[in-house]
Automatic annotation (TrEMBL):
Belongs to the shikimate kinase family. Pathway: Metabolic intermediate biosynthesis; chorismate biosynthesis; chorismate from D-erythrose 4-phosphate and phosphoenolpyruvate: step 5/7. HAMAP family: Shikimate_kinase. This is shikimate kinase. Keywords: Amino-acid biosynthesis, Aromatic amino acid biosynthesis, ATP-binding, Kinase, Nucleotide-binding, Transferase.
């Protein structure tokens, strides 16, 4: 009997010891978990403060880098990239100007012309070509649509059409052209529909008006590629993007073609492509178009005896 009691007591002691070991292991495990949890929280805090977050290898040695340093390095790289792009852009402009200088006699235009007004359908490249002409002639460049947007507190042309109507826009357009006609040494990119009002031609003929004549197919391709969101006169059509754009542009061109013919000079992209041996007018560079525009302006000035 006493042996059984001693055995039972011994078993109970072993169980207590085993239970104690299990509890000790649990406490140890909890302590370790808490320790790593604290470390993890500290690392998160470091990350928030922009402290050490990454390690990169350079030249065989490890270098710790902070978030702040990383951002600074990226900004510096982006700034250098921007500087290279600006240099390339400046060089390209310089080459464009030099190319035109070699192929045109623009000093005569500077002496005889008060300015130039560029007309044409939407998407014909009036702004791009106009900026090149202004650089070559050392004239000021104006975009009539941009000036109208500024007059209406920065409202886009599409929103002006939507909220105020086309008549309101055309009135603003006429007023802008009237003001610009009183200036000298300018190149003006007009809106595609500026030609529909006879009064606008009175102001546009103060200088040499140029019509950029681009095939409707090429216009439809250009506009479809960039979207019609900024083209209020193209929003009402439904169907395939290219087809609806082509149909609407064809209708607009039919309405305006006689008005465009009032320009003093016509720059036909089809003729330029034929002279250069190119099949697609979309392959023509803005420089080639600007050179033709300068030649057409010069031809007009020579035909107008005493023009000033």
């Amino acid at each position: 009997m006493k042996k059984k009691n001693r055995k039972r007591k011994k078993n109970m002691q072993q169980e207590d010891e085993e239970e104690g070991e299990r509890e000790g292991k649990k406490r140890t495990l909890n302590n370790v978990s808490s320790f790593f949890l604290v470390i993890l929280m500290k690392e998160k805090e470091k990350t928030k403060r922009g402290e050490e977050i990454s390690i990169k290898k350079e030249g065989g040695r490890e270098e710790k880098e902070t978030r702040r340093k990383k951002k600074k390095r990226k900004r510096k790289k982006k700034r250098k990239h921007g500087e290279r792009r600006r240099k390339r852009g400046t060089q390209k402009k310089r080459e464009t100007t030099q190319e035109i200088e070699q192929k045109s006699k623009f000093p005569e235009i500077e002496q005889k012309s008060k300015g130039s007004e560029i007309a044409g359908m939407m998407g014909s490249g009036k702004t791009t070509v106009g900026k090149i002409l202004s650089q070559v002639l050392c004239y000021s460049f104006f975009d009539s649509d941009t000036l109208i947007e500024e007059e209406v507190d920065g409202t886009s042309v599409a929103d002006i059409f939507k909220h105020y109507g086309e008549t309101f826009f055309r009135d603003k357009e006429t007023e802008v052209l009237r003001k610009l006609s009183m200036t000298h040494r300018h190149v003006i990119s007009t809106g595609g529909g500026a030609v529909v009002r006879p009064i606008n031609w009175k102001y546009m003929h103060k200088g040499v008006s140029i019509w950029l004549d681009v095939p409707v197919e090429a216009l439809a391709q250009r506009i479809t590629a960039v979207g019609t969101n900024s083209r209020p006169l193209l929003h009402s059509e439904v169907g395939d993007a290219y087809t609806k754009t082509f149909m609407r542009l064809s209708s607009l061109f039919e309405e305006r073609s006689q008005a465009y013919a009032n320009a003093n000079a016509k720059v036909s992209l089809e003729n330029i492509a034929a002279k250069l041996g190119q099949k697609d007018v979309s392959d023509l560079t803005p420089t080639a178009i600007a050179i033709e525009a300068l030649e057409q302006i010069l031809g007009f000035l020579k035909s107008e005896d005493g023009y000033c």
